[in-house]
Write a structure and sequence with these properties.
The chain has about 240 residues and is an alpha/beta fold. Helix 2 packs across helix 3. It is globular and about 50 Å long. The two termini are about 30 Å apart.
């Protein structure tokens, strides 16, 4: 759940990258860390296990303040994808405001994707988070590999759901920022509806994203470029 500290004039939003082992969650966060304005990103940290790891870091746009003086902070996490680390996944998912599910596009990984998505639904319920309403974006990663699920099939499976769906080649940074921007905008929209965030604090999502983008990506991002289907994001598209 979003943390609002009015004493320190700060709001914190937690975004979790979920998915099966080796689907590209870690690569997404590493690429994002490289893309962000260095002044606005925290240190990339990792908690190692015997067979997997959890990455996390803070994205804190220290030069971004709303007209009302509110500071906006994001916390980005991955979960370990190995089946044996379910307790860690539960803990990391606790308090999440938005989720990116990173699926492996290879046909051979279809079952792993399905089991991981089912596990996400179960762990959301355990954490008293509503699967039907929490901002959730699907990313089909590894689009550069052979024997992958075609876009047409992905559209058929996911196009009628509420979940915005993206293609990505995370190792090349393709689709990474677009996925991130979509899920964060959806998260901000939920916060705005709940707290009247934009009006009370003068928050502007466009200004926020303009402040966190590094020089390498400032003029390269088009959120539609890697979008397979918009889902509930359709209402926010310009």
């Amino acid at each position: 759940m979003v943390q609002m500290n009015l004493e320190f004039r700060e709001v914190t939003v937690k975004v979790v990258y979920y998915g099966p082992a080796l689907s590209g969650k870690t690569t997404n966060l590493q690429k994002l860390h490289q893309m962000f304005n260095p002044q606005h990103r925290g240190r990339l940290m990792s908690l190692e296990t015997q067979s997997d790891r959890t990455l996390f870091y803070d994205l804190y746009p220290i030069q971004y303040h709303t007209p009302a003086g509110l500071k906006v902070k994001l916390k980005l996490f991955t979960v370990p994808g190995q089946v044996i680390h379910n307790e860690t996944r539960k803990a990391v998912l606790n308090g999440a405001d938005a989720i990116v599910f990173v699926a492996d596009s290879q046909r051979s990984q279809a079952l792993s994707n399905s089991l991981s998505f089912k596990n996400l639904k179960e762990n959301l319920k355990i954490n008293n988070l509503d699967f039907e309403t929490i901002p959730l974006v699907i990313q089909f990663n590894k689009r550069d590999l052979a024997e992958i699920k075609p876009v047409e099939e992905i559209k058929a499976d996911w196009g009628q759901t509420r979940f915005p769906t993206f293609s990505a080649i995370a190792t090349e940074g393709k689709g990474v920022f677009e996925t991130f921007e979509c899920v964060v905008r959806l998260g901000f929209e939920v916060i705005n509806k709940k707290y009247d965030f934009n009006r009370k604090f003068g928050f502007n999502p466009d200004s926020f994203f303009a402040s966190v983008k590094g020089d390498k990506i400032e003029n390269q991002i088009d959120i539609n470029r890697y979008m397979i289907s918009p889902g509930q994001f359709a209402g926010l598209l310009k």
